[in-house]
Every structure is written in C-alpha cells, then in structure tokens.
Amino acid sequence: MWWSGAGILAVIFPAVTVALGYQLGGYPGVPLGFLVAGIATWLVGRRMNRTNDPRIYHNEHRFYSIPMQYWAFLWAFFALTQTVLGLLGEAGWQQE
To answer: Record keywords: Transmembrane helix included (predicted)?
Structure first.
C-alpha cells in the first residue's frame, strides 16, 4: 500500500486546495493553494504522528514511506516555484 494511517491526506490536501485556489483566483491561486496545503499537511501530520509525549513522534501516518508532515516541504517548494514562474511570466499569469 502507498500509505499508512491517514498518510493519504498528504496528497488530498494539495489536490483540494490547489483546485479551490484555481477556481477562486485563476492561475495566481495555485501557489496559494500549495502554500495552504503545505501548512495543513505540516500541522495535521505533526498532530497525528505525535504521541502522549510531544517530543516523540511515531510517524505512523505515511505516504510512500515518508511521514506525512514532511510532504509539507514539497508543497512549499511547489508554491515557491509557481510564484517565481508566475512573476517571470512563464506560467500564464498575464492575460493577453
């Protein structure tokens, strides 16, 4: 199986937030969607993988063997790259 526990949320969060960002704001909403997905993935992943001792994590919620909260870094990277591409005019932000 590709995920364990609720690790599938690491993919569901960006799918929903990017689609919603695009619907609400057009292409400039995509980086915002990735940013929101990264924040949600980090917070939910850390919360779900925590034990009773907040310093110890069991990391039972995984996607492709990577603990859920660490997928947030990929979504933040995508947000950054989409923002840079949009500012450079490569991503189709400008309307002709």
So the answer is: yes
The kind and range of the H/E element at 61 are: none
Dihedral of the CA atoms 47, 48, 49, 53 (nearest 10)? 60
Neighbours of 44 (CB within 10 A): 18
Q: What is the pLDDT of residues 17-50, one digit of tens each?
A: 999 999 998 888 999 999 999 999 999 999 998 8
What residue type is 95 in one-letter code?
Q
User: What pTM, to 2 d.p., does this model score?
Assistant: 0.84
Concatenated DSSP letters for 7-58? TTHHHHHHHHHHHHHHHHHSTTHHHHHHHHHHHHHHHHHHHHHB-SSTT-B-
pLDDT digits (tens, 9 = 90+) for 61-74: 999 999 999 999 99
